[in-house]
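Input record (one chain):
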Amino acid sequence: MKNKFRQTMLGFFFFLLLGLFIPFAVQASDPSFYVQGRHLYAKDGDKVILRGVNRMAVWAEPTGEFSLPEIEKTGANVVRIMWMMGKPAEEFDAIIRNTVKLGMIPMIEIHDATGDWSKLPSVVDYWVNPATVAVIKRHEEYLLVNIANEAGADVSDEDFKAGYKTAVTRMREAGIHVPLVIDASGWGRNVEQLHNTAPWLQQQDPDQNLMFSVHWWHSDNNKERITAALEKAVALNIPLIVGEFANKEVGCRGAIAYQHILKESQRLEIGWMAWEWGGEPGNSDCHEMDMTPSGLFEDLHSWGLEVAVTDPNSIKNTSVRPQFILNKAHQ
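The corresponding structure, as predicted from the sequence alone:
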């Protein structure tokens, strides 16, 4: 009887200790933001619909000290930050801190593999470098990582799945547990491939914490195409965002139905980031893509003014900053 009692008590204390320590182990590996279904959530459970802009910070303004306060005036809740492998990760620490101080979510992306599928492994090498992981861990409460900007031009579904399964696995094994954003191939345009592969890729992620991004550079002004692509993503329960769009594509060609992107994204609760804020270095391939030529809020013009302020579905009219980020900004 005594032995049985002793075994029972030992078992009780074992499970008590397990209950004390396991939650801490799980929480230690969990980031603040997480994906559930097709939405992004903050650690307090707030649903987050991303509304913001892209910023080519790496070349002209790696700290964001000039442009970020101007972007903040729009009410944006996210800034997608361009970075390159030639710059050490420690140097993007400042712009991440400065973004959060202003109540906005930083999404860092590596631009080197744009249109070049063969460079994806090198981009992942950059992410899993211990020095990069250290910076990510420092900010994992509020950071989003966009693995590779528009990697690949013509990539098969099978290659896309294999390449990103490997990328995600390597990054998770390196200790990166923040939400990871995967761009469509085809220079970001191949939303159909995301429809075909995103549900499978989400299941391959040990954290099941992936988002998927289409860059809407289809300059055919086709509203029906936009609606069909976004509605299909919703039907498939894909956590999709529109990571880039402007009024025209490279070379100022065609017309992009950007007002329709705003309208449909608001209706379907899909996040978006406009390309690009403007100021130095500017979009040399099409200056019309600069939302503000000077980088100042007061100089927002044309489509940029609409997207940021005046459209009923603009950043100013639809962006909500999660309380968690606002709390961080005041610390």
